[in-house]
Fold these 3 entries.
Entry 1:
Amino acid sequence: MARLEGKRAIITGAGSGIGRASAIAFAAEGARILVVDRDEAAAAETAARIGEQAVALAADAGCEDQVRGMVAAAVDRWGGLDILYANAGVGGGLVPFLEQSVELWQETLRVNLIGPFLAIKHAAPHMVAAGRGAIVCTASVAGLRANAAGSPYSASKAGVISLVQTAANALHGTGVRVNAICPGLIETGMTRPMFEAARARGSEGRIGQVNPTLRAGAPEEIAAMALFLASDEASYVTGQAIAVDGGLSSTLPFKRQYP
Ligand SMILES: NC(=O)c1ccc[n+]([C@@H]2O[C@H](COP(=O)([O-])OP(=O)(O)OC[C@H]3O[C@@H](n4cnc5c(N)ncnc54)[C@H](O)[C@@H]3O)[C@@H](O)[C@H]2O)c1
């Protein structure tokens, strides 16, 4: 039997990168997917690549009315919801610390942290009523350590790590699990400018050199963890933030001495 046979899933930020790879991976394992993205054409493209198991919906993952509507769309269509992957996020740019505005912080936290909170708030009651459900959020290694991104982004992702801990415990005894993934550097729409700049400089061989795998990751490598956490294989995993980062977060700053 396929790993997500018969499951009904919402994935936000599924118009690109990690979300799209996850939608494709979940569907390949038998799930039906509500492909949510604020970019309507991108969501439609993901759904078209999957076919009849997927439906696209344009929604802003940081807006409560739209998140409520997103959950209602899935429940109305399928009669319930088994999996929520709150993955949508924004990078927040690399504005120098002392020049960061309140507006930049508010928008980054709205999408990256309040968004997953709203998704859990509106999806979990349906899962609690069914006595089972799996919620996955995308955090980041930036939520574990400094220097992977700007301060608002890092704080938002540290918040997601805390959110999955508090939500998993708030939902104790309900059968609903809540976990996060902390990706390292993955080539997606969010990071593409950095990869393209490195290729233009001829320095792409240096990308990922500070982690033990000596490379960046692919969206499919994050989707593989999302699939595991969303599946019944992870039935005893909750309240965790799991790094999928080529070992980046396992190290201190260092100079490599041996091959
Ligand atoms: N790429 C990396 O290296 C990396 C590392 C760690 C964490 N992440 C996280 O992974 C998640 C997915 O990002 P990605 O790397 O695939 O980037 P991406 O830009 O390729 O995909 C993000 C998608 O989210 C959508 N989105 C943004 N804001 C939204 C909103 N308010 N409502 C609905 N959709 C919205 C975008 O339109 C886009 O399609 C994000 O949470 C990101 O912070 C990425």
Note: The chain is about 40% helix and 15% strand.
Entry 2:
Amino acid sequence: MSSPTRAGLVCVDDLSRWDGRLPVALVGTVVGVEGRRRAFRDFARRISGDPAATIRHEDGRAPVLLDHAHLLLSSASRDGFAAFAAAETPVGIDVERVDPAGDIPLGVLHPAERDALALADEGGRAVAFAVIWACKEAYLKALGTGLARDPATVRVALAPAGPTIHDGTIRVPIHVEEHRRGETAFVVALATLPLPGA
Ligand SMILES: CC(C)(COP(=O)(O)OP(=O)(O)OC[C@H]1O[C@@H](n2cnc3c(N)ncnc32)[C@H](O)[C@@H]1OP(=O)(O)O)[C@@H](O)C(=O)NCCC(=O)NCCS
């Protein structure tokens, strides 16, 4: 499986910098659930060109842009930092905060990911875990299962060229960026999948 994720500018913090191509992701600070959903709706309106477009949110399901079936959406937030993605194929986005003081829940990882983290130096371990987890969630959102699927059943392979999801025989490269807000670092991961049957 190849990924249509393009190189170059994918995540922008201001849509005036968007080059008009898809996939695209917008990152920024939001306040509360209402603020996040308003910002997500505004993003979807801008991308679709429809000033009245609305998003249907349902617990445990990917958000759906009504009346624009060709545009697929994903959303994530962590500690007031949000990321929204739009693509013409299944898409998933996730944000994780890099937490150097946090415990790493090794039990939710694939054994090979645990081995990779054990080899990382102390400074790099928190970043590596944030990348692994963001990639898993982004991929599972693109699939539409979210964490209803056991995240240990997919493996994130870290490499200098960028992380890749290994899911059985399927390989999906994930676009990853690091963003800072003050002292805090966030990892944003964007997964795109081919259209079913393509
Ligand atoms: C999707 C999921 C991974 C989100 O995790 P999270 O860290 O709490 O929240 P994030 O900020 O990363 O993402 C939230 C967004 O995920 C999206 N989302 C929820 N379920 C989704 C799914 N199955 N597929 C794709 N996207 C989904 C929603 O758009 C939500 O944003 P919204 O509230 O603005 O609509 C998680 O809620 C999940 O797996 N839910 C489905 C399975 C489930 O309910 N399992 C029980 C608990 S394990």
Note: The domain at 11-192 is CATH 3.90.470.20 (Ribosomal Protein L22; Chain A).
Entry 3:
Amino acid sequence: MKDKYLLGIIGFGGMAGHHYTQLSKGNTKVSIKGVFDINPARLEAAKKKGLVAYSSKEELLNDPEIDIVLVSTTNEVHAELAIEAMECGKHVICEKPVTPTAEELLLVMEAAKKYNKVFTVDQNRRTNKDFVLMKKTVESGVIGKPYVIESRVEGSRGMPSGWRTIKALGGGMMLDWGVHLIDQLMYMFDEKVTSVYCTKNSLQYPEVDDNFRMVMIFANGVEARVEVATNNYITHPRWYVLGENGTLQIDDWNCDGKVVRCIDKEDKWAEEIVYTKAGPTKTMAPRNPNSVETITLSEPLDVEDNLDPVYRQMVDAIEGKAELTIKPEQALRVIKVMQAAMQSWEKNEVIKTDI
Ligand SMILES: NC(=O)c1ccc[n+]([C@@H]2O[C@H](COP(=O)([O-])OP(=O)(O)OC[C@H]3O[C@@H](n4cnc5c(N)ncnc54)[C@H](O)[C@@H]3O)[C@@H](O)[C@H]2O)c1
């Protein structure tokens, strides 16, 4: 056990900068010693922040003071860098998506076992307030058993240029955002995913999915609909959940939302046809407003929505105090679902899974 664990970062781009900002607050036992990046401009940026700029990856990995390595490069080299770092005796935290394929992650997991190192993944969106609010509200039972969950993130500015547009570097929205949304749902339900259907568009960049829509079915019967979009000028709610006894909606990242739940099923039907705005219909006739209750949802103030919980769970695992909460086995299931989704859009078929 140590008072401080020193972190070396490989790949000091945008996301690594976010790790720097958060860890600089000193809320965890992890602090950054230095970085290596193949781009000299990023090494200069590190120096300006008072960090050590290593002249090579080997120099960083052979620094005996470094306890933990953060792999925060483009996705295609995550596996090889993570394995090399563990060979050099370092614990590793890897940015998401941990690796583009399950095969690569299995090699990383083998290395973690062989070298007896802690290996975890930055699935930081498990503590996003909107997700925590949705999960807690559904688990409270207020809408009854859930049977459909819709999770969407939608922008209209297209995809950022750069490596995200290049397939060989692990680009595309499935690996970029899909990995978070799928991880959230698989973290919420222990049940297996039994089928996946997915369609995608490559509107802006022909090599990669810049938009996708996916349906994944869990063994408990829950149908999860996941959409990541970069060309939606009118957006859906962030979350929309149907339960047997009510409906939940969270509109946006501010967590504005509501639950409308049934307090009287109103299953008495008129003998005669009912005339409504929808024309003559009994099914779609408006219900008695006294038969439902509306509960306003708002931002949960007790949720620590930053990178600290990710690092704390890692330090606890290094110190043998607790198991990782973000386990490689969980990341492996998420990758398998993403690979099934890609297979689905290539074949235009529902893919039966046992994940
Ligand atoms: N967890 C999150 O919420 C989140 C958010 C954004 C990005 N990410 C992930 O973080 C990673 C980096 O994304 P980014 O947005 O910071 O990209 P970026 O392009 O800003 O940074 C990547 C950096 O890695 C460097 N690099 C590439 N290959 C390298 C190598 N072999 N050795 C050393 N340096 C190398 C590049 O020069 C660049 O500076 C990706 O895996 C991405 O998916 C995670």
Note: The chain has two domains: 5-122, 127-304+336-352.
